[in-house]
Fold this sequence. Notes:
About 50% of the residues lie in helices and about 15% in strands. The protein has helices spanning about 1-15, 30-40, 45-70, 75-115, 120-155, 175-195, 225-230, 265-270, 290-295, 320-345, 355, 385-390, 395-410, and strands spanning about 165-175, 200-210, 215-225, 235-240, 255-265, 280-285, 300-305, 310-315, 365-370, 375, 380-385. The longest helix is centred in the N-terminal third of the chain and has 42 residues, at about 75-115. The chain is built from 13 helices and eleven strands.
Amino acid sequence: WVSWMLRCLKQCRNxxxxxxxxxxxTTRHYHVSCIAFQNHKKSIIVGDLKRGVEKICSRYEELLKxxxxxxxxxxxxxxxxxxxxxxxxxxxxxxxxxxxxVEEIRNMLELTKNEVQEMENEESKEMLSLIKEGEExxxxxxxxxxxxxxxxxxxxxxxxxxxxxxxxxxxxPAAGGAEAALFAKEILSMxxxxxxxxxxxxxxINISETDLGGIRNVIGRISGTNVFGSIKYExxxxxxxxxxxxxxxxxxxxxxxxxxxLPESTEKSGKIEIERKDMKIDTYRAGGAGGQHVNTTxxxxxITHIPSGIVVAVQNDRSQxxxxxxxxxxxxxxLYDKQKTEQEQKDAAExxxxxxxxxxxxxxxxxxxxxxxxTDHRIGLSLSGIDDMLKGNQLSHIHEELEKKVMxxxxxxxxxxxxxxxxxxxP
Length: 427
């Protein structure tokens, strides 16, 4: 856009045109200005949201003065507060800089359009080319401004401290019998492919299969960067509509599976202590595939947490100690998730967290094979290409749309998404 502006300025100087920054002061260009603004994309930081962000920026300026005037012994508390709000201030400063860029491009575009009306056809060719290029530059500049505004809103949204942790994922059939078990196997494969695409590691901790190759229950561990922050959007009820391979009459059937996603290890979950008297630990011989050694030793471990009734069984490894350690990790993750869910339910009257965290019993997605359509019910998003979906190729797009929903609701005044440290700045 800088190169384009320079060429436009050259044309202005050659034709002795007024400074583009003064355009709005002349009635001569008023009609052009109105036309230019008709297609202008509105800012998404407006109203109470804008006033709150500006209050944060004002507080930042106050803190700078406080630090300058305070003795060294009293500066620490001001610096801590300043550091906590700095991400919003810095992001908003970039927005304001980009707004100036957009205005400069728009003003120059208005001037160029107005001059074309006074030129001969041959003389206007170069200017028409500049107008076309300028409209593209304006569109790109406004898109950049919107992206920067989204960065501001992202810095306002309360972060889930579990997002950066690894995840424990569990799949189990609900309604639909053998067909649900087969569908669970396909969804497991989808998550394995998705993990591979994200450069994550997917490890099966425990799996129980049916005679037809379906899954009765499977627990896996996904390790990598920001795993839980992405995969948490998958928890809930997944529904499939198709003609089962076991159906000889070609009758359409609806089946469901439940997907549970837990943060594996966080500062809070790691501090959960389970007393020995609250656990019943059983060992037994592992069943199913796994080799002769697995089936002839008491390597499988089942832990029952007596107060909550939660039961965790692991049998995949030949080592009883490894299975017990894995079972304890899963149990801690489930107890932490139980505590977190109970807290969310207490806060439900004040804060709508379903879009961020996902209700565990919520029907989140339908896979309709006859129509080759996937529908995410939380955002009303429909996509085609179930085969591509089951390769893990569309999950990132769905997760991004879910994040956008949170931002959209924030713009619409859903202040419950704003981080606790910023809420005092918003009316």
